[in-house]
Fold this sequence. Notes:
The chain is mainly beta and 711 residues long. A 15-stranded parallel beta sheet has the order 1-2-5-23-26-29-32-35-38-41-44-47-50-53-57.
Amino acid sequence: MRLRIAPILMSILPATLFPQPSNLASMGPDPDAPDRLHTAVREATCAEASPATLSDRLKGSSLSKVLTGMSAARTVFYVSPDGKDNWSGHLAKPNSQRTDGPFATIEKARDAAREKGGQNTIAMGNGDYYLTEPIVFDARDAGLVIAARCNEAPVLHGGPLVRNWAARADGRWTASLKLPPGRDVGDLFVNGARQTQARFPNAPLDGDPRKGWLFAAKCTEDDDIWHGNTRFCFRAGDLPISKNAAGLVAHIVGGFHPGSQWGSDTLPVVSIDTAKRAVNTKGTAYFFTAEGSRYFLTGAVALLDAAGEWWYDRAGGKLTYIPADGVTTNSTAVVGILPTFFRLHGADGMVVSGLRFRDGNPQGSGKFGTDTRSFGAIRLERADGVRLIGNSIDNVGVGIHVSESKDVLIAGNVIGDVAGNGIYLGTTYGTFGKSHGATILSNHIHDIGRVYFETAGIWFQAADNVRIAHNLIENAAQFGIAGGSLWGPQDAVHDAIIEHNVVRNANQQTADGGAIKMMGEQADPLNSSIRYNLVTGTGQLMNRADGTFWPSGYENTNEWPSPISWAIYTDGKASGVRIEGNTLSGNISAIGINGGWSNLVTGNVITGGSGAAFRVDDGTGRGWRPPWAQPNRIEDNIVTVDSGNGLAAYIYVPDHKLESVQFARNRYSGNLNDKSFRIHPEIMPSGEFGSLSDLQQAGIDRGSVASHPKQ
């Protein structure tokens, strides 16, 4: 389904026609659909595939002319769990005498390929590979292909197996576990499922994201909000622990302004002041907490008390686990110790295809102790022309991290259940090298931000001429796709195209986020497009100071703080963005512009929202009007107003006034009334609220029409 459907037809298509997670094949015959392309790429680029297979499998897809040379004549080095590193690696299976066969490790195959030189392929065979250190590739590995053997499924685990569990009388299991220096247990996976690090309060059994939290109290002796990144206060009776804070970590939700709750972080606890009921943390000078910030604690053996929880004593080299239902001592248990499996540093032109990466350390995208977005199961650093295609990545910290690497292709991968970002494309803070020319195509990315909420299915910055297309992104803590500059010219983005993506259920864990976002702190036109995307189910999660949560789908522009959630929005002076032909259904609010100029919103179809269809705010650009600035134009859109308050548009531009926004030829229907448009400053004859007619009398709408339902 190309989503290039005329707006009038999109306005009447029921939601049931759109693809459901349980049946991705319903996306139709489009060769760029994520499920089809993932399968096709794995079949076309497996180690023994012929050039004819490549051409046939990818016929009609966007990759048909991109993946060339994959099946050219190469020396093949085989790797298998049944292999030995003192064999030649030239045989796919051991010979009958077991005197020769495949290598056992990727490192040995890599070194053999380096020694031979020329064009080489590492062919990975069926089975499980347990890594205890990242595998590093560099300039000596330029052009190397690492691919699964045809019809085989190699699985790379980010840590060792846990063996020899001892069951104790109290129901707990223990196992000796000695790790390499500098490594720690980030997660425990049993039968492929992530278990829970010992925590308080316990994780909710039903998975309800509103449960399992404590809520910070007001710090009465110190009201300096700048202390909020190194300290929060707790309510009497909340913490069941002594003032010994050894090993404790606070997982806490907050934001730059206390109460905004747009991000989360993991902050090591330095000390607990029981007299002042204060928890002192190793803060970041970035992240803030205040009364009502929600949190839970991990890291102490005293918190180990529920089925499925684990705790690791590094000093004693012992892992303790309370088994979940159905788990036996024969179950497969893997400890995730690696945040990075493959590190490609200067390894231009490498190809990684058909591998599964799973069970890693969930580091990444937390701001404490990390670089820009950090880590990545596959991590590229200054490696140009790399192609990552047809892989599966799950139960890791960050799926794919690309830093300062140009012309990268990321296509047909399945990435899910990650602690931070699914895909990060950008730079390293301090050097600010660029990642221009990337293509991110037809990936299925799901369940993003399981630990760090301020994340995205795809996050990009410092990257011009990027195309993000035909991706399916589902169940994101905050963003589906987020791009643009956070710091200014150092990480500016221009000429980005975000098109034909499906984003479902974004912003499920924060109070300020959305499905597709563009930033523009560099303060010049982005010349970018967000077009022909389908966005549904964008939500919010925000609690009040007393711990009660705002209703699902709620937004009230009269309240601060109040949940804020957008299907598509521009922020931070983002200007020169064309938002065109998108279908936005069942979100809270639809399209927002915050602080920028010269944006065009046209041809979009908006239905089923509980907030405003359009919002324009000069908040992040207050007092800023560059010489090239033109009004933000909202034209030729089809809007059905479904919310009870009947709000079609909310414009809050006290500084920019009439110069910042113009409406034209939009078609409104549904729950319209004399308060459907809210404008500040009060330029309408009716005051701050008014009808479409009032908006037109104020001179900022031309040719729009409104139809009311028949009584």
